[in-house]
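Quick start: what a row looks like.
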Amino acid sequence: MAKNKTVFFCRECGYESTKWMGQCPGCKQWDTFTEEPVVKKTAMRQPGITRTEPELLSKVAAVEDQRLLTGIQEFDRVLGGGIVIGSLVLVGGDPGIGKSTLLLQMSRELSDKQIKILYISGEESLKQIKIRADRLGVFHGELLLLSETNLDNIEDTIRKLMPQIVVIDSIQTMYKEEIGAAPGSVSQVRETTGILMHLAKGLEISIFIVGHVTKEGVVAGPKVLEHMVDTVLYFEGESKASYRILRAVKNRFGSTNEIGVFEMREKGLVEVTNPSEFMLQGKPEGEPGSVVTASMEGTRPILVEVQALICQTNFNMPRRTAAGTDYNRVNLLMAVLEKRLGIQLSGMDAYINVAGGMKINEPALDLAIVMAILSSYKNRSLDSRTICFGEIGLTGEVRAVNMAEQRVIEAGKMGFNAVLLPQMSKETISNTNIKLIGVRNIREIIKLFS
């Protein structure tokens, strides 16, 4: 009997090889190759896709993308203003983070507007979906449910019903019989996503697919999966925290800088229209080591609290931890303080935390980290109605950051009366009732604690 031909795929990036290799030449990861049977390609053209001819750019009609509003403003913001007709959207996130809950809530809002939606689940039975739907509230519209994992049956159902929106939960449970590999494998995920992409474009149906993530926090399956879809959304948030952040990593129809903030409650996800107020809940007043900063998430400024605890070490090597920001960046800033201000931090334990579980890596956080460290080290608190932001260089200079005026405006809305910011940024801001304190280097900052 003829032996079935197999090839090796990289689980991380989808690199294909005829033999096993220890390190993937594509993504440089080790021990990621798996052996799978070759997918036999047929000469049949995908139904619903017509042959196209080249067309001059000057003759292409520039028509705005048609969008459907989901009724969830934070979701619409991340999508770029609503759902684009015929788009393929990938929603990823940790288990239990709220991916299925968000898509079911979206289905409820759209079905109430008499929009035809087909919700396909490969992980839950119809009764289980019904129980979860009852927890979210009353569904006034008609929502079609299907519990199926065979993609051939799913394709036939979609072509028969012709819904406007399709939800696939999840792509790792779908399989095509012609492919000998198990569901969730590189071959299955790649082929099933390709078929769904043809359905979305050919039938002008918007399809949402849920993707599981690996322990590294990326969507499981080949990296090519993210390249095939139009939009990639990640759900972020700690399992113990109540808030969730929906972030666009890729969006062909909008900006990738926008985020949506939600709070997980008993009856599902609730929009957080004022993230700054939400993040500053419980902030202590007049405590050393606590500083408020303004971070930009896309075009939206968010005020967060940065905390620092500096204490004498009891070990030969001092402990340094950073939660919510870059650990190496904290070490760099502490080295700048030692060199430029002569503060001896080498024998001190340092614990830095961005309160609320937010993860911020933008350089504008530098000034807040330095202020929090100095406040805790000198055991003197900064004025509780003052915020600060700015980037700090290796020579101790305080450099300008982008969108400074939006940060100052947000501080004024939240009741703050003073802003410590780079001198270059101060010169670009006008018409504000908030006191602006411009600084050029960290030597000017230390005077605030004298």
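That is the whole record. Residues 232 and 249 are 5 Å apart (CA to CA). The chain is about 25% helix and 25% strand.
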